[in-house]
Design goal:
- The protein has 358 residues and is mainly α.
- The protein has one domain: ABC transporter involved in vitamin B12 uptake, BtuC, CATH 1.10.3470.10.
- The protein is 74% helix and 1% strand.
- A two-stranded antiparallel ribbon has the order 1-2.
- Helix 4 crosses helix 7, helix 7 packs antiparallel against helix 8 and helix 15 packs across helix 16.
- It is globular and about 65 Å long.
Length: 358
Amino acid sequence: MTDRTVPLPAIAVRQRPAAVLAALAAVLCLAFLLGISVGAVPVPAGRIPAILWSFADPAVEVDAGQRSIVALIRLPRVLLGLVVGASLGMAGLLTQALFRNPLADPGLIGVAGGAALAAVATIVLGTAVIGGPLARLAGPYFLPIAAFLGALAATTLIFRLASDAGRVAVATLLLIGVAVNALAMTGIGFLTYVSDDQQLRTLTFWTMGALGSASWPMLSVALPAALLVLLASLRFAPALDLLQLGEAEARHLGVDVERLKRRAVIAVALLAGIAVASAGIVGFVGLVVPHLVRLLTGPAHRWVAPGSALLGAGLVLLADVLARVVVAPAELPIGLVTSALGAPFFLWLLVRRRREIG
């Protein structure tokens, strides 16, 4: 993870980047419609535009039951899926660019572990121990707030430990992140052991990821925050391209490498924290999505960055649709679906990477 790190591999299959982004946007629109249409009570896709338009113009005549389902359940769920998928896709891209390794993942730097530990502690220990007035004030949002604060706390700890005289060593950052993750998993294991049956059920579903808790109040916080960080992250693209040449080369070309690393790590922490706090742990999206986009567009981050956000959002929405229909009328945790899709790809990626390195 130093300047001698093997750069991102050359990509053999590339398409016109603008056409790829247009195709990814089309896939996202299709996933959006499926996410609203599919469920225990189907909503015909042809009626969805009129239902959505009726929110702006109440004079539009639509089925009241279908409108309520879309307004109260499906639309918040789909929008939350957009937030989670785009955030994880962009966080994965920034992590891979920071470490200059396509096998890197946002979980490597301990953000997800910190968020998960805080959330599990909230579930098991309860508001009587760690909540108090804050829990009563936050109400049902105490769990996502705790998860987000856990992500920020883990990021702050890792960054301080990895900093030396104002510089952040990427290799040290990675090793400290692995250690923090191990400590977080130890804490989660202990809390799981001492939890009762009801807490264990809640904990299990949360750690597998789900979009069922989506609501408009949650989106009112998560959506603007994620959008702000996503737009800010797009500005990193030119500097990230130069960083792939190595830190020394990037400095000679005018990049403030230390500031770039700090901002990238903070962006990863915010994006992963928002995703974990909103939907629990959704695995493999941050690993798979950037690499897939890179295969199609090439390594230029001005294309890979928006492509990762688009494909991440579309993948999470399609995984959520599968989670609803595979064992209907029950629902699978979305994390199981993304892991089932991502694990085979990860194994293929490892084999490909080993052959390229020799």
